[in-house]
Write a sequence for this structure.
């Protein structure tokens, strides 16, 4: 959300409704706060579920993470609502996007920010952990984008942004590296560099 140094005025989102998944934790929490300060109406989504402990996704304030952020926005004079839903659920797209229509008349921007990373060495990463990560990181973006596209198509306008921290396997390998170096470079699994967030626009 960096400002273009060529512009003398900061980018504003007045009159825009923005849906942000993973809004209760950083970086999503900072996304919604900044957007609200810039005039956007925010629909913030997050999940509160104990099994995500293994992914390092919870902290002391997670029990109503999205609602806490929404309350902060409202107390500052902004407009926002919180939706608790698991983005890996195929029904989550409708569950999260529909309130934007019923409450605010529609949505203009979707930020697919929800994601998890299993905090485990690659050799200890279970298939269940891997599949859960894909279901949230990739499946969640698909479910939300599909439903958002339906709204954008009717409205004739929309933007989708995918926030990406790093590829799943490279994060799993770099968080807990092996204690010994590989015997030969050719025998080591390649590790992709962290991916950068980039916008995908739908008109």
């Amino acid at each position: 959300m960096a400002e273009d140094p060529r512009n003398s005025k900061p980018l504003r989102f007045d009159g825009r409704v923005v849906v942000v998944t993973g809004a209760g934790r950083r970086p999503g929490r900072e996304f919604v706060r900044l957007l609200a300060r810039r005039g956007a109406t925010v629909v913030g989504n997050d999940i509160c579920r104990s099994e995500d402990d293994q992914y390092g996704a919870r902290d002391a304030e997670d029990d109503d993470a999205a609602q806490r952020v929404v309350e902060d926005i409202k107390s500052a004079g902004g407009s926002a609502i919180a939706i608790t839903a698991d983005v890996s659920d195929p029904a989550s797209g409708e569950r999260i996007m529909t309130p934007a229509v019923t409450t605010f008349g529609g949505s203009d921007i979707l930020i697919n920010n929800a994601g998890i990373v299993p905090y485990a060495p690659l050799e200890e990463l279970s298939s269940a952990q891997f599949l859960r990560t894909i279901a949230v990181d990739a499946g969640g973006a698909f479910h939300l984008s599909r439903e958002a596209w339906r709204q954008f198509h009717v409205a004739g306008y929309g933007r989708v942004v995918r926030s990406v921290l790093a590829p799943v396997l490279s994060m799993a390998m770099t968080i807990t590296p092996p204690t010994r170096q590989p015997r030969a470079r050719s025998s080591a699994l390649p590790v992709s560099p962290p991916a950068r967030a980039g916008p995908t626009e739908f008109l």
